Amino acid sequence: MGKYSIEADQSVSQTSWKKSPLIPAKVTTAEIPADHFSDLATEIVIPVCAVVGIVFSLVQWVLVSRVQLSSDRNTNSDPANNKNGCKDYLIEEEDGINDHDVVVKCAEIQSAISEGATSFLFTEYQYVGVFMIAFAILIFLFLGSVESFSTKSRPCTYNPHEMCKPALATAVFSTLSFLLGAITSVLSGFLGMKIATYANARTTLEARKGVGKAFITAFRSGAVMGFLLAANGLLVLYIAINLFKLYYGNDWEGLFEAITGYGLGGSSMALFGRVGGGIYTKAADVGADLVGKVERNIPEDDPRNPAVIADNVGDNVGDIAGMGSDLFGSYAESSCAALVVASISSFGINHEFTPMCYPLLVSSVGILVCLITTLFATDFFEIKAVKEIEPALKKQLIISTILMTVGVAVVSWIALPSSFTIFNFGDQKVVKNWQLFLCVSVGLWAGLIIGFVTEYYTSNAYSPVQDVADSCRTGAATNVIFGLALGYKSVIIPIFAIAISIFVSFSFAAMYGVAMAALGMLSTIATGLAIDAYGPISDNAGGIAEMAGMSHRIRERTDALDAAGNTTAAIGKGFAIGSAALVSLALFGAFVSRAGISIVNVLSPKVFIGLIVGAMLPYWFSAMTMKSVGSAALKMVEEVRRQFNTIPGLMEGTAKPDYATCVKISTDASIKEMIPPGALVMLTPLIAGTLFGIAISASNTGGAWDNAKKYIEAGASEHARTLGPKGSEPHKAAVIGDTIGDPLKDTSGPSLNILIKLMAVESLVFAPFFATHGGLLFKIF
Questions:
Q1: Are 536 and 319 contacting, i.e. CB atoms less than 8 angstroms apart?
Q2: Which of 25, 459, 618, 766 is the most exposed place for a label (fewest CB within 10 A)?
Q3: What is the pLDDT of residues 242-284, one digit of tens each?
Q4: How far apart are CA 369 and CA 379, in angstroms?
Q5: Nearest-angstrom CA–CA distance, 244 and 715
Q6: Residues 6+ apart with CB under 8 A from 130
Q7: How far is the C-alpha of 635 from the C-alpha of 618, rounded, in Å?
Q8: What's the rounded Cα separation, in Å, for the pair 523 and 393?
């Protein structure tokens, strides 16, 4: 590793070097202990961990693929005949249902869902591709104009005695990293969707043998997505850094400034994936529920409902593809924010490769930790009853957090010097390695707290959701009131957890500490995504069971998996939103560092104007997305009503509905309606830079309304049975609450976290342009 620098002059403040350029001549060196990682070890460990994650995901996929979509009973047999609480026989045989017909129906339904999801994503990506190319050109033009497209080297921003690569190079490489991040994000979402649509019918078929086998199939499928995304995100970022280093050489300031485009590309694609997918899924869901359940009194996912295929397609394009791109974006941005700040700290000045790669080493250990954690759910313990599902998912969060804490401690000890300096608004702050360990850990444990609080407020096993369900006795209005109150209340503890994380991490290591806290929250991203993807897969499995005419006992099992999945989906959104808050602050820190801002005066008119306009944007954005869902749902409701009224024999089950028209309505509406909210988010930083807290509540409110409905439908307790059965007035009130909550929890709420971090990372990427040409409006006046 060589030698490492620390200020030795005791006359200089312990916490900072005031406002001086970062000149290596000012520092003395201290030996790094011999037991620390060498650069060669770092260069081996990071890609190896990423490859291990990819291999593990492929192994899980092979295990899922062993569940054949055929009626050959021997193909599905398991030597461990008594495993997972049920012998390996098929319940359909007891009920006298033809097994072959059931499997064929499942295969047909799966094929229809997969084709619908693939068709939508390809259509969406055509539009997004045009945007991607246009915005890449914009990045090149804006950043290239900083030095009038000069190819001459320039003095480094933070060390004027050294020469750095020209601004034109930053423009070219920022554009390349933007495209790389965008493509990786799109690929992450698409692969997740393909895996989910591959696994949904297989989960349904495994439910015939017991809830344990269905759980394992759904969870393994989620793990395929989780590990592929985490490993690909890490590997692509690491390869990009090493390729860019071939040109930049020792100019690490320019290198990591260019890498920030990777995070911008990831989040911009996530925005369109979340908004477009969210509008698609909720238009179909609201249309299917309002007409099918409330007006026609038919079960959820009944094949007679024309919107049922579109509804199941939506689960995959919104909750799977959208969430995959979203969390990839958070991971890329937190890594980029940490790397930017580190590059102008002593890590970057002294070209210490291993400490510089500390964020990537944390992510590498996270993959190994999540691998071990996954085995606890799929191999070490068996699910034998419905009541064991939620505890098994909760244990995933606990085990991964405990193991990751140990892993971070080891990485902090072997990869970091005992003492180093971190850039802090123009100063240099002395930091110890144990302080950085605590920064990562506080983010990690804050994530666990957010997960537990989310579970408490959205699971029907606890009183908040049961109270919402109970309020349905007096109609939809009281249900809505109770649900909104629950959502507002659920924000309190997560906000305190995030606030404490920010305070602790900033106190220890300034903005670098905040970025590492965000990365700590996302370090177990593979497990988080596995838990999150499990939900929509289970939801689809239940829909396929209903449409294939399977036994009511199968539907009870898939409903139990789905109810747990609603909670896990809310937990996943909680992680995404919590990490987005930390990431956006870390990106702000990197932005003010790069733009040369040493102090932010809140009382300045320009700053105050920015604050109130920024506070308004989430409302404007939410209004656009909510109205988009409403407009699309209106068309869907009209179409579903038309088919029920005009197709003879549809209600009797003797005629087939026109599924394709409903799929087309959702596709057309989502593509059209995703453009204005996307333009708002992408253009605001550019316009504001050149010229001049809602999300958790929304997600938890929607999740609680959904599970209150399922609580009544399941009738698992005496209280629930007094509110049911399906079709009762309390149940109809619960369905109305669920439909109101749908756009909150799956469109507006999840998209808001992308809004705050995307605007921050965009500002960071364009910081050199704003520093040179920004504030035109104020220059005029």
A1: yes
A2: 25
A3: 999 999 888 888 888 899 899 889 888 888 888 888 888 888 8
A4: 15
A5: 59
A6: none
A7: 26
A8: 17
